[in-house]
Specification:
Chain A is α+β, with helices and mostly antiparallel strands and 1118 residues long. Chain A has 26 helices and 54 strands. Chain A has five domains: 2-273, no CATH class; 295-490, Sandwich (Immunoglobulin-like), CATH 2.60.40.1730; 640-803, no CATH class; 811-928, Immunoglobulin-like (Sandwich), CATH 2.60.40; 939-952 and 987-1117, Galactose-binding domain-like (Jelly Rolls, Sandwich), CATH 2.60.120. In chain A, a hairpin with a 2-residue loop joins strand 34 (859-861) and strand 35. In chain A, helix 10 (217-241) runs antiparallel to helix 11, helix 18 packs across helix 22 (738-757) and helix 22 (738-757) crosses helix 23. Chain A is globular. Chain B folds into two domains: 3-216, Rossmann fold (3-Layer(aba) Sandwich), CATH 3.40.50.300; 223-296, no CATH class. Helices cover 36% and strands 28% of the residues of chain B. Chain B has helices at 41-48, 70-75, 92-102, 108-121, 137-149, 167-181, 194-200, 218-225, 236-245, 279-288, 291-296; strands at 3-11, 17-26, 29-34, 56-61, 64-65, 77-80, 155-159, 186-191, 203-208, 211-216, 229-234, 248-254, 257-263, 273-274. A six-stranded mixed beta sheet of chain B has the order 6-7-8-3-9-10, sandwiched between helices. Chain B has a four-stranded antiparallel beta sheet with strand order 2-1-4-5. Chain B has a four-stranded antiparallel beta sheet with strand order 12-13-11-14. The chains are: A alpha+beta (1118), B alpha/beta (297).
Amino acid sequence: MLFLKNIQSVSKYESKLLYRSWFFKVFATLTVVATIFTAIGTLEESRYVESIPTLLGYSLMFTFNIGQAIVSIFLASEYLKRDKQLDTSEIFYVRPLSNAEYLLGKMWGTIRVFLLLNFIVMAVGVVCGYTKLGAAVDIGSFFSYFLLVNLPTLVYIIGLSTLLMLIIKNQALTFVILLGYIGLTIYYIGDKCYYLFDYMCYNVPLMESTITGFADLPSLIIHRLLYLLLGFSFILFSILMFRRLPNSHYALVPWGIFSAVVFLGAMSLGYLHVANYTVKDAYRNNLILLNNENVGNPKIVTDSCNIDVVQQGKKLFFVTDIVGRPTKDASQFTFTLNPGFEVTEALHEGTPLGIEREEHLLKITFPEEKSVEDTLRFTLKYEGVADERICYLDIPEELLVESAGFSKYKMGKRYVFQDAAYTMLTPESYWYPRPGVCYSNESPDWQQNYFTHFSMKVTPNAGLTPVSQGRISLSDDSLSTMFALEYPLQSLTLLIGEYENISVESDSTLYSAWYLKGHDYFTASFDSIQDTLPQLIRDMRRDIEREVELTYPFKRFSFVEVPVHFASFSRTWTRSQERQQPEMLFLPERGFGLWQFDFNWHIKWRRDRREENKNRGGRILTNLQIEAEVFNHFKSLLMDQNGSVKFDEGRMGRRSVTIEESPYYIFPQMYNFKYNIYSSQWSVANRLVEIRLSRSPWWNNFLARNVNGLSNEEKCNLLLQERSFKDLLKDLELRNLMNNIIEVQGKKLFLGAEKALGVEAFRDSLFNYVKAHAFENISFETMLDTMGRLAGCDIHSELKEWEKPIEVAEFLFGTPTVTKVTTAKKDVFQGDIVISNISDNPGSVNLKLVFWTRNGDKQIFNGERKPNEWVITFGPKETKRIITHWEEAPNIFQCKALFSKNLPMLIGVHTGKVENGKVLTPEGEYPLSSDFLLEKDEIIIDNEDTQFFELSVPPPSGLLNEWIKQKSIDEDFKYSGFAEWNPPMRWTMTTGGGFYGKSIRSAAIIRAGDGEEHARWKIPVPEPGRYELYYYVCKPGEVFWGGWHNRGRKMYNFIVDTGEHVEEHEVNMRRADNGWTLLGTFDVACDTMNVTLTNKTKLRYISADAVKLVKRKDETEE
Amino acid sequence: MSIKIKNLNKIYPNGNHALKDINLEIPSGMFGLLGPNGAGKSTLMRILVALMEPTSGEIEMYGCNLLKERREVRRILGYLPQDFRFFAKYKVAEFLDYAARLSGMNDGKTRKRAVADMLEKVGLYEVRERYAAKLSGGMKRRLGIAQALIHEPKVIIVDEPTTGLDPEERIRFRNLLTHVSSNDTTIILSTHIVGDVSSSCNNMALLNKGEISFRGSPEDMLKRAEGKVWRLCVNDEEYNAINQKYPIIATIPKGNMWDIQVVADKFDEYAAENMPPNLEHAYVYFMEKDLNLWLND
C-alpha cells in the first residue's frame, strides 16, 4: 500500500507541475481545437462515418495519438532534465521512498496528464459526433481505440524517452533522436515486418466493421500488448538506470528481474506477431507444394452438386451429394476442401469410401477403378470452421496483409468470415469440395471452372438468413432455405447473417438488395421512383449490354452487403474477382468508400441546384428525375473498369502510377461466369480471349505513359523482348502488368488473322464463336484451330512462340505530307508517309489517320465508308512509302509500331500545311531503298549514344534512405516518368514523342541547380572546318505556364569546347521552337568537339537530348 | 552518540581523495562542520544523507547502518541542500505537503495539520498560497528548513544554510535551528561561516583538505588558540614583511599606520600585544597550523 501511496504522491505533484506548464496549456488548447476540426472534417468527409460510425473514434484517437507521441517525448524527458538541473530534487531523493516509487510516480504523473487529454478528445469527439450522427455515434469505439492505440503508444514512448534520457543525459539530443525515430517509423519503416515497428499504429489496419469488428483482433492485441510491455520494460529499466542510491544494495534486484521478464515477454510477443504471419506464409507455401505434387491426379468433373448446410453456433455441418465424371480412369480422385473442415464420412451407394486428407487435399478412393465413361455419385459429410489461409495462394503474403486505405483509414483484409452471427464463404475458401487441387505455380491444370448444376439447402442459426445463388424457397417448417438454380454455375457462395432484402422484378429478372438489419439507409432516398424502378433497371441493363456487347445471362442479380474488410484481388487468369459471384455483387457495408452510394448527398446536391436554377429560370428537375439520376449512378459503378489509381512518388523525384481494375465492373457476370475457355497448358486462355473481346479504356495507357514515362504496353514489349511469355506469367512481381502482357501477347496471337479478316471482322467472328458456347467448357486449342481455319492462317502454331522471347522490329517514320489535288470530279487529299523497318526482323505498324473534321473516324470516299486505321506489315530492312486518298485532309498520322523497339510506340505526327499538287499517285505501298530515312551529311549525337554521350553522377544520397526504401517495379525499367513540379534529383531517362530519337525518342532529365550537374556530347569531327551546331529542343511545359514566378529568362546554358576555344551559349526556351535550334557556328580544328549542358537554369528541370553538327555548305563545297 | 563515522574515505573516479579516514562521533544537538571551500564538507554531507556512497568506512545513525539500511536512515533524516531552488509551479503549502507525503505522512488530516503548524513555525503561513519561486531569499530558506523538519526527523543536515542571507534572516534562521535542536535532535550544520557555528553549535569539527583538523566544542577550540593572536600597529614596510610570514586576520588603517591582528604560535620579532581569540581567529589558526604537528601535540 505504501508503495502505491508513494507512487500516487509523486504522480500527483508531477502531473500538477505538467498541468501548470505553458507547454501543456498550449498543447491541451491545440488538442481541443484540433479535435473539433478533425471531428468536423471526419463527419463531413463523404459519408464514411455514416457508413461506419466507428471511424469517428478511429479518426480522432489516431490523430491525437500522433500528437501525443511527439509531445510526450518532450514532457517525459523534461522532468528528468528538471531533476538534473535542480538540487531541489535532492530533498526528495533523501526521502524514504524507493527509486521505483519515485520514478514510477513521475511516469504515472506524466501518463495521467495524457490520459486526461485522451478523455478530453473522447468527450469532444462524442459531443461532435452526436450533433451529426445522433444515437449512432459509437462511444465504445473511442475506448477500444484508446486501449488499442493510444495507451500502448503512450506507455511505450514515455518509457523509451525516459530510458534514453537517462542513458544519453541530454534532453535536446534525446528529443532529436526520438523525433528521428518517429519519422523513420512513419515514412520509411512503415509496414515492414508485418507492422512490427509501427509502434504508434500509423500504418496498422485499424478499421472496425460494424458487422464483424476488427479484421484481425488477436493479431492487433498481440501487437499492442507488445508495445505496452516494451514500454513497461523500458520504465522498469529506467529504475535500474536512475542515478539515486537505492534504499538497499539489493533493492534493485527484483526490479532487474522484473524488467528482464517483462522485456522478454515483449520480445516473445514480437516473435509471436511475426511468426503469426511467417507460419501462415509457410503453411500457404506448403499448400502450394502439395498442389504441385498432386496437380496431375485424377479428378472428377462435377456435373451436379447438392449441398445441405446446417449451422450450429459458429460451426457448419455439410452433407454434399456429388455427381460427376472422372477425367481419367482411376479409383482415387482428388478434391480440394477447406482445411478447416473435417471430413467425417464419404459414401458411395451406401458403402463407405476411403478418405485421405492432407491439409486441404481430399482424396476419395472407390473400391474399384472407374472409367471416364462412368457417372459417379457419392455423398460427403464434413464439418468445422473454415480456415482463411487457403485463400489466394497465388497472391504474395505481403499483399494479403497490406492494409487497404480509404482516406487516412487503414483497413485490414479478410477473405472468409465464419462465426455464429455472420458467415461468408466465397468459392475462394473452398467451402465445398471442388475437383482437383487449388493454385499450383507449376501447372495451370489446377484450374477448375467447370460448370456444375448446384442446389443447396441451408438451416441457419435462429434469426439469421442465408443468401446464395438460385431461386429461394422455404422449407415447410420455415427453418431451412432452399436455393435452386436453373443453369449451371462455375461456383457457389454462401452468406448467413441478419440479412433483409428488397427486390424489384424487371423482364423476368429479379433484382435484389440484401442488406444487414438496421443498414437500410437507402430506400427512403428513392421514394419517388418506386414505381419506375423496373423501367430504370431495364434501361440501365440495355445500355450496359450494348456497351459490353454481351448479355446478362442470369435470372437474378443482387447487391449483397458484406463486411467492409472483405477484400478481393485481381488474378492473372480472370477479370472476375471474388467480390463478384454469379448473380451477385458484394458491396462494403453501407456502401463504404463508394461515392455512388452517397444517395442522400447526391439528391440533396441536385435539389439545391434545382433551387438555384429556379431563381435563374433554368431547367427544373422533378424529385422523380433527381432520384432517377442518382439511381443511375449504379451504372457508373458497374461500368467503370478502373478501380483505384495509385500514384507513387518514387526515389529522387521519379514517379509512377498503378491502375487497378475495379472489382465492381459488371463484365465478369456477362463473360467469365458464362463462358469458360480452358487449356491444360495455358492458364490465361480464358483471360486472353476475354481481353481481346473487351475494350479497355484508352486513357490507362495514356496516363501510364505520361506518368511512368512508359505505357504499360511499352513495358510489356520491353519485357517480352527479354523473357518468354510463359516465363513472365509465373512472375508474381508483374501482377499489375499481367493484363497488359496478356493483351500484347493476345494481339500478337491474332495479328495474322486480323490482317487476313480485318480487325473488326475477326473480333466479330471470335465473339460469335464464344457466344455459341455459353455455359460450356471450350478447349482453347480447339478454338484456335477453328478461328485459324476461318481466317485461313495457323493461329495454333503461334503458341510455340510463347515459350521464347519475341523478336522485334525497329521503325523510322518520315514526316507525313498532305497534298491537295483537284481532279475533274472533286478535290482529293493525298496523304503520304515513309516508314522504314531498319531491323533484321519483320514487323507491323498500325497506321491511323486522325481527321479534325466533322466526319472524324467515319470517312467516306467515293460514296463508301473507308477505314482510317489499318495494319501495314514490313519485312526485314524494308522501307515503304504509303499513299492514301481522302475527301478531307488528315491532320495527324498516328503510327503505332507494334512489337518493336520503338519508344514511344505511338507517335502522332502533325501534317502541317496542305500543299497543292497536280498529279495524284495511286493509293498503295511503294518500296523504297532501306536507307531512305537515314540522315546524310549530318552528325547527330543522341542521349542514347552511350559512346559519345555522358552524364554527371551526383554523390550518393543517404545510406539509410538507400537501405530502407524499397525498390519499386518501375525502377526495373531504364525509362521512367517524372513530375514537372518535382523533377528528379538524378539524371533520369524518360521517353516522349517530343524528344529526338531514331526509334527511341528519349532524353535525360534532371532538376535545375547551380550547374553542378551536366550532360556532355562528345561529337567526333570528321575533318577540320566550319560547322553549325544545333540542339534538339523539346520545350518544357512550364514555359507555357502563367504566373509571376514563370516570368523571366528560361535559358539552357551550353559550354562548347572546340579544342581551341571554349564558348558559352544560351538557348532561350521560351523563344525557341521545338526541334533543331542553332547554337552557333564554330571553327573546329581537332577531332572531337565537346558540348556540355549544365543544370544551371531558372527552369525547374533540364532535358538533355541530342546535338547535331552540320558542316557549312560553303565549306562542304570547297 | 547519535551518529558514528568510522574510517570514512571517499575517492572520486578522477582520483581526488575527498575524505581521508574520517572518524567522528556526533552527539545530539547542533553540530557545526566548519571548513573552507573544497575541504570535503559537501561530500561528507552527501554521504550522510545517502546521496553518495563512500569508498570505504562505516556510518551509524541512531543505530542504523547508513550503508545497508538507507530506507531506515532516510526516515529519520531531514536535509536542506546548499543550492536550494524550487519547482516554479508549486505553491508553498503544496511543496510542504509533497515533502510530508514522501516522508511517510500518509494520513491526510495529520499531514494537513502538520503543514499548517510548520508554516506557522517558520512564519510562512500567510504566504502558503504563493508560488514558492516568488518567495524572497530568506523565505525560501525557511521553506527549505520547513521541508526538512516537516516529518520531525532525528537528524537534520543543513549545508551552508545562511549563505546569501541578510543578518536579520541569518539570526532568525540560526534561532530556528537552535530551537529545533533542543528536542533531542541532531542538527549538522555545514558551513564556512564561523559565526554560524560560534553562535549556535555545542559541538563542532573542523574539516580541512578532507581531514578532521579539530573536533570538540567551540570553547575547546578557542582554548587551543589562546595566546596565539597578536595585535600591533605597523607601517607599510613592516606590514608587507609580516604578511609574508604570518596570516593577518584583521587590518584597520590608523593614520599612516595599520592596526593588524596576526595569528601565530610565537611572535617575538615585533612588539605585539596578545589578545583573546574568537572562533574566527581559532579557525584561521587551525587552518594555518601544520596538521600533523598539531595532532601530535
